[in-house]
Amino acid sequence: MAQPPLSQRIQRLERELGVPLLQRTPRPVRLTAAGHDLLARAREVLAAVDHLEVGAATWAADDRGDPGDPVGPAIRAAFARAGVDGWLHAADVDHPDAEVAVGADEPVALASVFKLPLLVTLHRAADRGRLGLDEPLDVPVDRSVGVTGLGAMSDPATLSVRDLALLMMTVSDNGAADVLLARVGRDAVAKTLAELGLGATAVTASSGDITATLARDLTRTGLGLTARAVGDAGAVAAFRTLDPDLGNRSTPRDMTALLARIWRDEAATPAGCADMRRLLRLQVSRQRLAAGFAVAGRGAQVAGKTGTLLNLRSEVGVVELPDERRYAVSVFTRSHRVDAVDPAADAVIGNVARLAVDHLAATSASAPTAVSASVPAPPEPGSGPASRY
User: Fold this and answer.
1) CATH T-level fold of 32-363
2) 387 burial class (0-12, 13-18, 19+ CB within 10 angstroms)?
3) What pLDDT score was predicted for residue 20?
4) 84-94 as b/e, with b when 16 or more CB fall inside 10 Å?
5) pTM for this model (two decimals)
């Protein structure tokens, strides 16, 4: 939705409710207390509508004597209402055959989700003694730019691999990610993906490469780096940086498989996997997957990694329920609009994730299995039995 119509609708809603919903200042627009309250209630309503649709489909299927797939159509309908194309895969971490799939094997552009396989590569390299997590790395002035962390800073810095990884995962720091990618090398990431059997996933570009490609895409439009160019849905549709065939890519299924390995201590040593889980739980962004479960009021813990690039919004993560069941979820969306802020696209990621997890939890026929507390350290290639990861 273009900004003027959106502003008009918000102003009309404020008049109807009799309270301001936004703080309008020269600084970035922020929600008032009433705005925050209304947003939370609206998300509850949207989630309830989605779940009602699943219930209705289930009742209709029961009447026909055909169990069918009630959740898949409801997820597709939720994507359509939000004005996005969407792809989802959700699976029980401990019983991977239990899954919900909507376009799960379609290639998707990773955006900042590429930082997850990079994180796994770092820990596997540390496990094999090829780098130390306490190793200091210099962050140059001419680093990749961004709106958070080192990417938004100006001066040289020196941080450990461990602390750079924390910035990369918690605030999606582009500068930190590119320093780490340069340290381990793209070949190492490719080797990790091959060893883990993630054949649909490739990391070929750094954050800096993505920014440079975006700049070239903007130049090709003839409009330059302007609000008109970035807001033109037709022009953006042809941007190479959004094409999964031309950059960092994966599928929702590959990403849930990677998450499940981290949660089962199979992506690295138990200590390495525990540290990766810690970082994913510390992610600052909570408006997508986590928001979908916050309204559920069930005490679910959500860990994840978001990705955002123009009209692409995604998050991959793990939802841990109080009864110890855990579900890996990957949701990727491409909005039909090109807005800097798209609450509907953010909200639908959490809503469809909750639909999928609720469906898996309701149909679960067995209790969660215990996760092994001890996994041997990975051997060097050729030095012993084949690595279990």
Assistant:
1) Beta-lactamase (3.40.710)
2) middle
3) 87
4) bebbbbbbbbb
5) 0.78
